[in-house]
Amino acid sequence: MGKKKTPAINSSSTADIAFLLLCYFLMTTTMGSQTGLSRRLPPMPTEDQKLENQKVNKRNILIVKINSHDRLFAGGEPMEITFLKDKVKEFLTNPTNDPNLPEREMKEIEGFGQYPVSKGVISLQNDRGTSYQAYIAVQNELVKAINELRDDFSYNNFGKKFMALDEDQQNIVKDAIPQQISEAEPMEVKRR
After folding, report:
1. For residue 124, which of 81, 58, 67, 181 has the smallest C-alpha distance?
2. Which of 15, 22, 65, 146 could form a disulfide with 73 if both were Cys (CB 3.0 to 4.6 A apart)?
3. 179: pLDDT strictly greater than 80
4. How many structural domains does the chain have?
5. Mean pLDDT lowest among 27-31, 35-39, 135-139
6. Which residues contact 57 (CB under 8 A, 6 or more apart)?
7. How far is CA 121 from the centre of its chain?
8. Helix (H, G, I), strand (E, B) or coil at 68
9. Is residue 143 part of a domain?
10. Contact between 10 and 17 (Cβ < 8 Å)
11. 191 — phi, psi (to 5°)?
């Protein structure tokens, strides 16, 4: 009696099928998009534009520093991150017209009229050893302070929050409450 042959499955095209499945999943799967910080860069200067030495009054600058140990300093004094938003709001609004806080300049805002706009600038400086988490937390507090000021202005003048306004009204609010955050190159911030 002869031996019976066992039927075998032809596996010569298995690699081709695996390759096709891989291609299918790569094309149909959506990849998570990376998110970052939304910042608008200043326009590039033209070639014939002269470089001006812009002097900014010291009272118009709030220096926010984060050292390599993730300690926060605002206006030269140590601070907990939970108090940063309120400090920035007070700095930008200068409610008591304090001579140590930023000055305000009357500006003509198109579609609104005259409004005293703060000349305040927030200068963010961090150490090379600052953790990304601390840096993002400080960024969030700075933007949150400006967003709350914009919401207050929007509610007082238009009766609704900033995000509920139309584009023209949002531009008025942005002109009245500008977001002026300056970021310096990472450097060595002293420990305290």
Report:
1. 181
2. 65
3. yes
4. 1
5. 35-39
6. 103, 119
7. 14
8. coil
9. yes
10. no
11. -80, 145
72, burial (CB in 10 Å: exposed 0-12, middle 13-18, buried 19+): buried
Residue 1 lies in a domain: no
Beta bridge partners of 62: 122
114 HSE (CA, 13 A, CB side): 3
For 85, list phi and psi in degrees, rounded to 5.
Answer: -60, -45
> Does this model's pTM top 0.85?
no
Amino acid at 186: P
CA dist 78 and 92 (Å) reads 19
| R_g over Cα of the chain | 28
d(CA 87, CA 92): 9
Q: Is 178 exposed, middle or buried (0-12, 13-18, 19+ CB in 10 A)?
A: middle
Rounded to an integer, what distance in angstroms lies between the CA atom of residue 35 and that of residue 18? Answer: 33
pLDDT tens digits, 48-73: 766 655 666 788 888 888 888 888 88
Q: What are the pLDDT digits (tens) for 87-123?
A: 989 888 888 888 888 888 888 888 888 888 888 888 8
List, in sequence order, the alpha helices (H) in 130-166: 132-158
Quote the domain boundaries for residue 124. Answer: 61-183
d(CA 147, CA 89): 10
d(CA 187, CA 67): 9
143: helix, coil or strand? helix
In a domain, 137, yes or no: yes
